[in-house]
Amino acid sequence: METLFDITLHTLYIYLAFSVTYITLFAFASIRRERTVFRHSEHRNRFLILIPAYKEDRVIFDSVNSLLMNDYPKERYTITVISDKMESETDEKLSALGINIIPINPEKSSKATALKIAAGYHSGDLYDAVIILDADNVTCKNFLSSLNNAYQMLGTAIQVHRCAKNFETPMALLDAISEEINNSIFRKGHAALGLSSALIGSGMLFDYRWFLGNVHKLETAGEDKELELLLLKDRQFIEYLDHIKIYDEKVSLEKSYYNQRRRWLAAQFGSLYEGLKELPLAIRSLNIDLFDKIVQWMLLPRVIMMGVIFLLSLFLTFTHPLESVRWWILFVVLTLSLAVATPDYLISATTLKSLRRLPWIFLLTLLNFFRIRGVNRNFIHTQKG
Q1: Where in the chain do CATH 3.90.550.10 domains reside?
Q2: Tens of pLDDT, residues 171-184
Q3: If phi over 0 gives left and psi between -120 and 50 gives alpha, with beta otherwise, what is residue 270?
Q4: Which single residue of 4, 54, 231, 332 has CA 20 to 30 Å from 135?
Q5: Cα–Cα distance between 21 and 25 in angstroms, integer?
Q6: Residue 35 above 70 pLDDT?
């Protein structure tokens, strides 16, 4: 007769084995090279670029200047900065550069609030697509022209490849690695198998009319996940373009990491709660992308998954040696999959030194599970500098 411990352990193993299998499948799928070639388009779509900026005086000019240097006709794109509590001097300098400024001072700041206000400000304008960037994002010279070529052939939603622009601290390097693993598994790997990409909060393009019709539905700090749910319920495919890159500033401090992951974890659980309501419909209507998204939100954060599997493997080695074998296999498979999902340019001696901080990151992430109540409805600013 099985004990409660045995039943619990077996149930946990089934859940974690499924999670590792999911990650492994898409990690190895991401190895496939992207083969889509987008022809040069003579048509120039009109883009509205929205940049929500909460106290981002330090980084906003790098972002805006990179956009102004794009090799795309200036009359075919508009840059709008939603300035939330930035210095008036910053707003004036941005205006002098020809940037639209929407100063806001809401009672509760959030990216969702900023986007809704900006949509109302531009509701009477005629654009083809809206691009959402963060205030610390830097674009390449051909960013808009490459997006224009792709948008001519693709649908309602596009996610581009967001990668790190700074690696000066171990925390920033680990954050960069985490971002690229997400890109490999939840974007590139999904696209390789014909599934919708995950959104990431910036570097996103949406059909302008679809955006205006849905942005008012955003309510939480996890606006990218809300957008995913809205798109997939509409059966709108989310494309991923690995070759179009934007550069994002990664967190350099442990406190910033803790706050950022706390917000992300709250957004994931909030999205899972809403997504589970749609699960019967997803199954009945064979909406594979929506079903996959709900499954994706059921996964534990990878650092928690790895830590739990390692600790249980170690414990069982001394208490149930034979039982520990399958747990160690699970740990090895997960580690190998994450290594496959990590780009070569991020693997170095410095990376190996930074990995020593994983136990501490595991503890920080674990603490977040006890501090997520109400977070999804509140704004937590991630200080990256």
Answers
A1: 47-252
A2: 889 889 999 999 99
A3: alpha
A4: 231
A5: 6
A6: no
Long-range contacts of 121-125 (CB under 8 A, 24+ apart): 121/80, 122/48, 122/78, 122/80, 123/212, 125/48, 125/78
Could you name the CATH architecture of 47-252?
Answer: Alpha-Beta Complex (3.90)
Q: How many residues does the chain have?
A: 385
